[in-house]
Amino acid sequence: MRLRLPRERDFTAPAHDVRVAARLGLALGVTFGLCFATGLLSHAGQHGSWWPTRPVDFYRITQGVHVLSGIVAVPLLLAKLWSVYPLLFARPVVRSVWHALERGSLFVLVAAAFFQLATGLFNSAQSYPWLFPFVPTHYAVAWVAIGALGIHIAAKLPKIRDGLGRALGRSAPGAGGLSRRGFLATTGFAAVAALVATAGATVPWLYRVSPLSWRAARGPQGLPINRTATAAGVARVGPDWRLTVSWPGGTRQLDRAELVALPQRTATLPIACVEGWSATATWTGVVVADLLGAVGAPTGRVEVESLERTGAYRTSVLLPGHVRDRLTLLALRINGTELSLDHGYPCRIIAATRPGVTQTKWVTGLRVRP
User: Fold this and answer.
1) Chain Cα centroid distance, residue 2
2) pLDDT higher than 70, residue 25
3) pTM
């Protein structure tokens, strides 16, 4: 018996239809677009030269949408690939130069999409089984993915219009597998289930119905801990600790008792991390602008230094807008109790809208730059 490779016409299941593929592509394009746009915002929040201070939930919302749209994209991408994979068996394999470019861009798109979704999920779990730096690589491949998506949409626009313009209709009698409507409904159910199962990490009122929420469970002092003092190499903070505030032309050191003696402010603020989880706590501490004024330092761009000696985020930068903001605190207490060592004792930064990795713990220095 002679074996032959299957041909496109051999796949007759209703799901392998341009009407199904077009609708899945539209849903996938929306989720990819949301993920890409909010990813750019996330990158700007960590590395940009400007970032808003209001609304206080801005980063919590944008990063939550970023992670959750990536999660929802997983079942949509799998379903989309299932609907179109018979095209791999179309003959001839390459019909023209343009067709070759289109197929090449599709390969790049699928590879980049899987890379982004897989590495994003690993990041949410704080697992990095690779040798490359996550943030710059994830950011660079996002541009590759969105560029390939643009090329793919341009090449397939006539088919997309055709598929979206035609009613789903009924499947032919005797057709195997789910109907077109059934396949789309099953995919939609899987996407919604993935959303609900994980959304509690960033949407507090969904926490009790989100069995796969990560890092949203309340930790010590009522707040999760991403990086412990042990992991950061901060074994203890002795009585000789001092906060050094420096600026062009001056330096001042304060011990913790002096910080406690300064006017205190209490504010309820969220903390949101790049992994997608967020939580709200009540923080008490010294307004950074007041602290600078008390020691005679000007306001401006402030570099924050931690007792942590290694790691990409052992220092952070407070942009001038945040330095002037009355909700930017050098926090000494959380939820009514003194900061524990894991939460950043003797003091930590907490400010509205800043990514969690820049809410520096174990602060030992503030350097005002012109």
Assistant:
1) 52
2) yes
3) 0.92
